[in-house]
Amino acid sequence: MARLTQNHKNGLRRKLFRVLKAEFPKADISLDQPGTKVSGLIVWQGFEGLEQVDRQSRLWKTLRSSLSRDEQLKISAILTMAPVER
Which CA distances in Å does 10 have to 13, 16, 64, 66, 67? Predict the structure, then answer.
C-alpha cells in the first residue's frame, strides 16, 4: 500500500511519490521529509533477484530523467527492497 508519511503539503515529496509510483507500479512507497531532505523506502516485487546496485541504478535513472538537478540534490537516500526482504 502506497503512502506519504506526515502531511501532503510538500511539493517535491508529492512529485517524487508520483514519479516513483509510475515507475514502480504496486510498490509500497514511504517518503519522509523531517527537514530539507527527502528520504524513503520502496518495497517492490520487481526488485526481487536484483543486486542493490542494479536497483539503485534503476531508481536514479528514473529520478534523473524526472527531477531537476536541484530536486535531486534534496534527496538524501531512498532504500530499495523486495517484499521478501522486509
Answer: 5, 10, 20, 17, 15
**Tens of pLDDT along 64-82?**
999 999 999 999 999 999 9
Mode of pairing for the β-strands spanning 28-32 and 75-81: unpaired
Q: What's the pTM? A: 0.85
Under a CB-based contact definition with an 8 Å cutoff, are residues 84 and 48 in contact?
yes
Burial of 47: CB neighbours in 10 Å, binned 0-12, 13-18, 19+? buried
- Is residue 29 a contact partner of residue 40, using CB atoms and an 8 Å limit? yes
CA end-to-end span of the chain, whole Å? 14
